[in-house]
């Protein structure tokens, strides 16, 4: 029997977490790890105690801001980081697994909090129709290791 490596375990968990999202546009999951241990998990969606977009606004989702982004959503990587910090877990030197490459705003948070490696599955730029992944470029410029996850994971959620 072959044992799965930790990259596969953590990315599969990120994919499964994405399925918890209430967003009607995109489901994203994140796993924050350090030394082969899980520090925190997250998925994109509104803050606890607000609206679940797929339930409250099933046809349109939540309102959009001036750039067309959700006004309620917290990104998966933000949720994972916020939960870790809220619970006094050190994220310095950690690795983040995420199903969608970080946007520029998330990249700035990732760098600032001390995450040293990001492993992502899909391009944020391709999803948004942008010319390049600004978040990944930012992370690389400032020394955060960025790795595209190279394996296919089977899932039945078309929004991942």
UniProtKB/TrEMBL annotation:
One of its GO terms (molecular function) is zinc ion binding. SUPFAM superfamilies: Cytidine deaminase-like (SSF53927). Pfam families: dCMP_cyt_deam_1. CDD domains: deoxycytidylate_deaminase. InterPro entries: APOBEC/CMP_deaminase_Zn-bd, CMP_dCMP_dom, Cytidine_deaminase-like, dCMP_deaminase, dCMP_deaminase-rel, Deoxycytidylate_deaminase_dom. GO terms for cellular component: cytoplasm. PROSITE patterns: CYT_DCMP_DEAMINASES_1, CYT_DCMP_DEAMINASES_2. Residues 5-141 form the CMP/dCMP-type deaminase domain. Keywords: Hydrolase, Metal-binding, Zinc. Zn(2+) binds at residues 75, 103, 106. The active site is at residue 77. One of its GO terms (biological process) is pyrimidine nucleotide metabolic process. Its cofactor is Zn(2+). Belongs to the cytidine and deoxycytidylate deaminase family. This is dCMP deaminase. It comes from Cecembia rubra.
């Amino acid at each position: 029997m072959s044992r799965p490596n930790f990259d596969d375990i953590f990315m599969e968990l990120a994919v499964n977490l994405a399925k918890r999202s209430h967003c009607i546009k995109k489901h994203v999951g994140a796993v924050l790890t350090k030394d082969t241990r899980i520090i925190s998990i997250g998925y994109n969606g509104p803050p606890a105690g607000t609206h679940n977009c797929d339930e409250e606004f099933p046809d349109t989702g939540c309102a959009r801001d001036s750039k067309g982004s959700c006004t309620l959503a917290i990104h998966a990587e933000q949720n994972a980081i916020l939960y870790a910090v809220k619970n006094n877990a050190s994220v310095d030197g950690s690795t983040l697994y995420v199903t969608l490459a970080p946007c520029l705003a998330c990249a700035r948070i990732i760098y600032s909090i001390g995450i040293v490696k990001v492993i992502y599955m899909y391009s944020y730029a391709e999803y948004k129709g942008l010319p390049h992944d600004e978040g990944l470029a930012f992370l690389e410029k400032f020394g955060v290791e960025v790795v595209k996850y190279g394996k296919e994971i089977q899932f039945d959620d078309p929004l991942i």
